[in-house]
TrEMBL record:
GO biological process terms, semicolon-separated: tRNA N1-guanine methylation
The SAM-dependent MTase TRM10-type domain, residue ranges: 126-318
Coiled coil location: none
GO molecular function terms listed in the Swiss-Prot or TrEMBL record: tRNA (guanosine(9)-N1)-methyltransferase activity; tRNA binding
Cellular component, GO annotation: nucleus
Reactions the enzyme catalyzes: guanosine(9) in tRNA + S-adenosyl-L-methionine = N(1)-methylguanosine(9) in tRNA + S-adenosyl-L-homocysteine + H(+)
PROSITE patterns xrefs: SAM_MT_TRM10 (PS51675)
Gene source species: Klebsormidium nitens
Main enzyme class: transferase
Keyword flag Methyltransferase: yes
UniProt-recorded name of the protein: tRNA (guanine(9)-N(1))-methyltransferase
Entries under InterPro entries matching the protein: MT_TRM10-typ, MT_TRM10-typ_sf, tRNA_m1G_MeTrfase_euk
UniProt-listed Enzyme Commission number(s): 2.1.1.221
UniProt region (Disordered), positions on chain: 1-65, 315-421
Length: 421
């Protein structure tokens, strides 16, 4: 592709936001799609340089589209950060007002309750680490096959990295976590995996070798999970090694994992999704949803309950959504503990609901902080909440939003918390 020089329009303005100054624009509207792709772009030949091939009209359109997306995403992130700061400040002010209206004894009790809550969260985090270390030493293996890097576009690989981050967190929160094994981590895939914030501190097995090489003496125990398989898993076998295809391709490559497993002569199976839930589309889940489903099943030993906790509502058929809306929601183990600890006489159902909501929010916040607090620095992070096809296990069912973060320090990693990681 020929190099180009992009002329940045010079616009006089009385006021300019920090973001606009940083980006060299005064109005995001100047990036409107109606703008001609040829405006402000010239080749080196036109600028007096050596003669080079001109960019095609489609290439110029893609370049402009990418520039507009980057600017708008940067603007959106700044606005979101400002909004979250404002909300945090409001909460602080509300807490100050609440404490100011308390007696000395009430204030002491409230502060003590908050302190105990922080200590409990730290203790739970350490317990999760202990469980992960135990799993790393002798837990059941769960493989994510990352040998499909060459079949994905750059933005699809970024989306897969986001799914890996969610997968790690969901597994770490499980009462009986798996030993996660990332195999086939080579080339561009290796660069992006090791670019995840805090990856060096992850308690996982990461190898350039394939799963066939790593488990050469246990090939009879390998089971590739694919929606195209004929056999259905009814319960998990602790002696089996389950493999999830790590690919995001929006179903471009049909029966990819099925054909791969068949050519390698290893067993295949599909999850019992259709037996317990009616879906609006294909019985295909993202990588992180498959990981979470397996973790939940190990805890509950019930596919129905596990699926209702994991499968997004948007993927369910209309009558299935109505049925679930009229029945009691399945509680996770943390929410059940909060319900049992709640005092009915101190607030009845309202108090119980408040406790459940606080517990769920705390668990989700812990998920977002887990990875960004483990690493001190990183070279580059690419995060796109996306979807993929996993050759029968993951497909495009979530909106993508690209984020590029460079040179983060431990303090700047805190910003990732506000971005929903």
């Amino acid at each position: 592709m020929a190099s180009v020089a992009v002329k940045t329009p010079v616009v006089q303005a009385s006021e300019q936001s920090p973001l606009e100054g940083m980006l060299g624009v005064t109005d995001l509207g100047m990036l409107d799609r109606s703008e001609s792709p040829k405006d402000g772009v010239e080749t080196q030949a036109e600028a007096g340089g050596a003669e080079t091939p001109k960019m095609s009209k489609n290439q110029l359109k893609k370049l402009r589209r990418k520039e507009r997306t980057e600017v708008k995403n940067a603007y959106k992130r700044v606005k979101e950060k400002e909004k979250k700061k404002a909300v945090a400040e409001e909460r602080k002010n509300a807490t100050r007002e609440m404490l100011a209206g308390m007696t000395k004894e009430e204030k002491h009790a409230e502060l003590q309750r908050r302190k105990e809550g922080r200590i409990q969260r730290v203790r739970e985090k350490e317990q999760r680490k202990v469980r992960q270390r135990d799993a790393l030493q002798g837990g059941a293996d769960l493989v994510i096959d990352l040998e499909f890097g060459d079949l994905m576009e750059p933005h699809e690989r970024k989306s897969l990295m986001q799914q890996l981050m969610y997968s790690y967190n969901r597994n770490s929160q499980g009462a009986q976590p798996f030993r996660l094994c990332l195999t086939g981590v080579t080339g561009a895939m290796k660069e992006q995996v090791h670019g995840i914030c805090g990856f060096n501190n992850w308690l996982v097995v990461s190898e350039e070798r394939s799963y066939l090489e790593r488990f050469a003496d246990r090939t009879s125990d390998l089971v590739y999970l694919t929606a195209d398989a004929d056999d259905t898993i009814q319960e998990l076998d602790a002696d089996k090694i389950y493999i999830i295809g790590g690919i995001v391709d929006r179903n471009r490559h049909k029966r990819l994992t099925y054909d791969k497993a068949k050519s390698q002569g290893i067993a295949m199976a599909k999850l019992p999704i259709g037996e317990h839930l009616r879906l609006a589309s294909s019985k295909v889940l993202t990588v992180n949803h498959v990981v979470e489903l397996l973790v939940r099943y190990k805890e509950l030993n019930d596919w129905q309950k596990a699926l209702e906790l994991v499968v997004p509502t948007r993927k369910r058929a209309g009558d299935e959504q109505d049925r679930l809306a009229t029945r009691p929601r399945v509680e996770s183990s943390e929410e059940e503990g909060a319900r049992k600890d709640a005092d009915p006489e101190a607030g009845g159902a309202e108090a119980v609901g408040s406790e459940l909501k606080e517990t769920a929010n705390a668990r989700e916040e812990s998920s977002r902080l887990e990875m960004v607090q483990e690493g001190a620095t990183l070279e580059r992070v690419h995060m796109v909440p996306g979807a993929g096809s996993n050759g029968g296990l993951a497909n495009g069912d979530s909106d993508g939003r690209e984020k590029d973060v460079e040179g983060l320090t431990s303090d700047q990693c805190e910003h990732l918390k506000d971005e929903g990681v």
